Amino acid sequence: MTEKATIIVHSGDFDKIYSAFIIGNGALAMGMDVSLYFTFFGLERLKKGKLDKGSLSKMNYFGLGKFMIKLKMKKSNVRSLEGMLSDFVELGGKILACDMTMDIMGITKDNLREEVISNFCSVGTYVKEARESVMTLFI
Amino acid sequence: MSIDTNKIKKVDCLDETCPVPLVETRKAIRKASPGDIIEVTGNHESSKIEIPMAVEALGLELLSIEEKNGNWIIRIKIPEEK
């Protein structure tokens, strides 16, 4: 059976969303199955047009820090978050959306990018997947 | 060893950084036909070490790692019967 990685994406911070996709895509590339479970502030990033709208977790300086980091990333030819997401989907990664977060934050399916979400679910699904995983992370 | 050039699938990862060389290699492997050879060219240092790790994890055959003018070329064999 293929080894599996399950990652909780709790933070909506720009840098942490990057970490989630870099690790997720790396694991897919190395032959693992990967599920990204978006919850709380992470789920905000699955709203239409919001994927790269998070602030930096440190040194954001009202957006100036993020602006500088984005410039540096462009210089270093780092792939955009949109590109990372489309790689993730192309390589067969699964994106799960927490339905409890949707309730408390008043998010409807219409607000979210349903085309990339494979499942709307709760903690039971995460535990089932994590239990089968050799790697599980909370970002 | 004679190689049918139609079977060589080239992946250009020059100036790409983490995790792109790994990801593009994996995409090419998924699209490859039995018997193909994937030839990845790049200059991201860690990927030279890590693409072979992925090749091993995927149970594929690493044909060669070549260095040329500061770039590396990695060749991967897709088995005849995938």
- As an assembly, this protein is heterodimer
Q: What is the count of structural domains of chain A?
A: 1
Shape of chain A: globular
CA-based gyration radius of chain B:
12 Å
How would you describe what is shown here?
The complex is a heterodimer of chains A (about 140) and B (about 80). Chain A is of the alpha/beta class and about 140 residues long. Chain A has one domain: DsrEFH-like (Hypothetical Protein Ychn, Chain: A, 3-Layer(aba) Sandwich), CATH 3.40.1260. Chain A is built from 6 helices and 5 strands, in the order βαβαααβαβαβ. Chain A has helices at about 15-30, 40-45, 65-75, 80-90, 100-105, 125-130; strands at about 5-10, 35-40, 95-100, 120, 135-139. Chain A has a 5-stranded parallel sheet, with helices on both faces. In chain A, β3 (about 95-100), α5 and β4 form a beta-alpha-beta unit. Chain B has about 80 residues and is an alpha+beta fold. Chain B has a single domain (about 5-75), classed as 2-Layer Sandwich (Translation Initiation Factor IF3). Chain B has helices spanning about 20-30, 45-55; strands at about 10-15, 35-40, 60-70, 70-75. In chain B, β3 (about 60-70) and β4 (about 70-75) form a beta hairpin. In chain B, α1 packs parallel to α2. The radius of gyration of chain B is 12 Å and the shape is globular. The two termini of chain B are about 20 Å apart. The model of chain B has no long low-confidence stretch (mean pLDDT about 95). Classes of the chains: A alpha/beta (about 140), B alpha+beta (about 80). The interface of A and B includes residues 25, 26, 31, 78 and 90 of A.
